[in-house]
Structures are given as structure tokens and as C-alpha cells.
Amino acid sequence: MNAANQPFIETHFNHSLPKMEINLSKITHNARKIMEIYGAKGIQVMAVTKGVCGSLEIANLLIDIGIRQLGDSKIENIKQMKDAGVQAEFVLLRTPALSQIEAVTEYADISMQTELVVIDHLSQCAMKNETVKKIILMIELGDLREGIMPDQLAHYLPHIIQLPGIELVGIGANFACFGGVKPDTEKMNTLSALAASIRKQYALPLPIVSGGNSANYNWFSSSEEVGEINHLRIGESILLGRETLSREAIPGLYTDAFTFYSEVIESKVKPSVPYGQIAQNVLGVYPSFDEMGDIRRCILGVGFQDVLVSGLTPLLDLNIMGFSSDHTVLNAKKVDLQVGDAVAFSVNYGALLSIMTSSAVAKEYI
Ligand SMILES: *Cc1c(COP(=O)(O)O)cnc(C)c1O
Predict the structure, then answer these.
(1) Average of pLDDT values for 31-57?
(2) Where do the domains of the chain lie?
(3) Mean pLDDT throughout 307-322?
(4) Which of 9, 148, 209, 259 is 20 to 30 Å from 296 by CA-CA measure?
(5) Domain 24-240, CATH
(6) For the CA atoms of the chain, what is the radius of gyration?
(7) pLDDT score of 297 more than 70
(8) Residues identified as active-site
């Protein structure tokens, strides 16, 4: 085994694998930079923790460097952070289910909302608990996931404004998540104009105008004026250092704060193409493989139950040939990979999300 002179292979006999290695100083650097970049034009950054399943280590470092709001799509993650004493204003990003409203009342300081029946119920729960819950209304601007159609606002707002226990603190829009729609100047101007007209018409301060997520970087960096937009909800740019329209790295940010390691459990020279009669594989597809003669095939002890394998990129010159629920098969090519070696991968957002959610993957903070 000559792992010692290959930087992205480690031999582990007493470490727990698979594992995610999480570099907290790189995330700290990224979060500081993101605050600096957006702060330069008066935009406040809410850090989004759903990609790391509400990790307490990461939540605490974000608060330590001056982030005030943490957003997550799962109330369970918010509860975990709040129960652990993380000192933030917690924002529930996914518009809540009617059945979750009691938990929302208890744990989320602000929630994103689009449905009157849900807001009515939140109002009742807030009254019962003698509290006031802040909400941000999400407006549909074309990506076609959550949001109220702009021409319906006149129907929603008068009702919401008079509800006891509810304080409308902002409006927001989301982009590049479902429909892949860009948050461009036109969309941002539309949101700004809506904010201005709501403030005027209803005499509301409406302090938060939340223009989007990590996909807003290109709009932001190419715009002198940001209009009324004063808030963005940023996950991926802080965690993985990228904007999300074309996944370009943001200059000065780390894209490698997370490294995934998995262990080789079999290493053998075998044919490159399966032999016998071919039917469906475990994914329900008829797989096909290129004929490359005999190759060194290495099996890793992880599969799609643990990680979105398609979101992994090996840090060595290896190919992922395929995977099943608990195995991933590599073409080791010229790398001398042996049983017991740990193979390192960079992750995309999907792989990050799946790994951080998986109880089968150890998390190592460095
Ligand atoms: C996930 C999410 C975000 C954060 O998106 P990133 O691309 O990770 O910055 C922002 N807003 C909403 C509503 C989300 O669901």
C-alpha cells in the first residue's frame, strides 16, 4: 500500500468512515466575505442552515461572526438550534404546513407565508400563547414554487394586516429553485416596486425586502443600485463558495470547506462490462458501460442511502461507475487503491444535504 505519497488517499483503521470533514475556518471566512460583499450595498444576509441540517457548530460560528438571522426549511432543525441555545432570530424558510403551526409558534421567530388559512391559524396560536409572530409574505415572480401571485396581494393584505398576533415584517421572492428562473434586474425591480407600493398603500414599515438566495449574486454584482432589496437568504454561497445560476466559484471564497471520505471495501481487477443477460438494476434502469477491457474496480462502503452519489467528485483521477443503496463502484484507473484506503471527494449541494442528513456518516469538524 503506498497511500502515504498520495495526498487524497488516507489509510484508516481506527477512524470511523464514511465521514464528512468540515473545515470551520473556511466556512467562517466565506460567511465573513459574503456579509462584506452584500453589506457593501446595504443588503443584510440571513444565513441558511438547511444544507447542513442545522449543524450547531456551524450555526454558532455564523452567530459569532455577526450573522443575526438563521433560516432553515425544517422546523425540526430550528428546534434543535434553539434548544441548544443558539442566539439567533430563527426564520422558517419553507411555508409551513397547517399541521406544524403550533411548533412554528413555539420555535420560529419569523416564518415565510403564502396561505391565508395558515396565517389565520398562526394568528390564533399566537393569541393563545400571548405572543406576536412575524411573517414574510412570499410573492410569486416566475420560478413557480411558493408565492402569492402579485395581482392577488390586494386581496391578501387587508386581511393579514388586521390579524391579531401577526406582524407583517416583509415580502420576499425565491428564484432558481424550481423553474430555474434568474433573479434579474427586471424581477428585482418588480419586487422593489411591490414593496414601495405596499408601504405606501398600507402605511406599513415593511422592513424586510428579501430578494432571493445564492442565485442573486450575478444580479447583485452587476447592479449599481439594488432598489428596495435589503435582504438575501444565503446558504450555498457560504457553505460551498458558489453562486447558483451556473455554479461559478465566487472570487475569494473557499469551495472546499467540506470533504467526504469513504473507505474501499473491495479492490479487484475485473472486466469493465457486466456479463450475462442484462435486465434492470436497482435504480430501475438498464445500465450500459463502455468496453475498456479489464480494469481495477474498487467498491466503497457507501451508496445512495447515505449520499447523493451523483453529487460527489473524486479528488483523484478516478471514475464513479455506478452505485446501489450501499455500494459505490469506482474505476480506479491508475490510482493504486487498496482495501482500507479512504477516498476523498468534493461535494455539490445535493451531496452535502444528503451526507449531513445521514446518521451513517460521521461528521468531523476541523
Ligand atoms: C434553500 C432556500 C434558500 C437558500 O438557498 P441557497 O441557494 O442555498 O442560498 C433561500 N430561500 C429559500 C426559500 C430556500 O428554500
Answers:
(1) 98
(2) 3-21+256-365, 24-240
(3) 97
(4) 259
(5) 3.20.20.10
(6) 24
(7) yes
(8) 50
DSSP 304: T
pLDDT digits (tens, 9 = 90+) for 162-211: 999 999 999 999 999 999 999 999 999 999 999 999 999 999 999 999 99
In the structure, what pLDDT confidence band is assigned to residue 339 with cuts at 50, 70 and 90? Answer: very high
Which atom of ligand 1 lies at the shortest distance from residue 215's CA? Answer: 7
- Tell me which of 27, 74, 220, 233 to substitute to probe ligand 1's pocket, judged by most ligand atoms within 8 Å of the beta carbon: 233
- Cα of 165 to ligand 1 centre, how many Å? 27
Counting ligand 1 atoms within 8 A of each CB, the residue from 93, 148, 239, 258 with the most, and so the one to mutate, is 93
C-alpha of 177 from chain center: 11
Please, which residues bridge with residue 349 across strands? none
User: Ligand 1 centre and the CA of 342: distance in Å?
Assistant: 32
174 CB-near residues (< 8 Å, 6+ apart): 138, 143, 145, 146, 147, 212, 213
- Per residue in 27-37, pLDDT (tens digit) is 999 999 999 99
* Ligand 1 centroid distance, CA of 139 (Å): 15
**Beta strand residue intervals within the chain, DSSP E:** 9-11, 19-22, 44-48, 69-72, 89-92, 110-113, 133-138, 166-172, 208-210, 231-234, 258-271, 294-300, 312-314, 319-323, 328-331, 341-347, 362-365
The domains spanning 3-21+256-365 and 24-240 adopt the same CATH topology: no
Q: 3-21+256-365 maps to which CATH number?
A: 2.40.37.10
Report the predicted TM-score, pTM, of the whole model to 2 decimal places. Answer: 0.94
Cα separation, 114 vs 97, in Å, equals 11
Residue among 35, 177, 243 whose CB has most ligand 1 atoms within 8 A, to mutate = 177
Predicted local confidence at residue 8, as pLDDT: 64
Mean pLDDT across the chain: 95
Q: Does position 249 have pLDDT exceeding 90, yes or no?
A: yes
Q: What number does the ligand 1 atom closest to the CA of 50 have?
A: 1
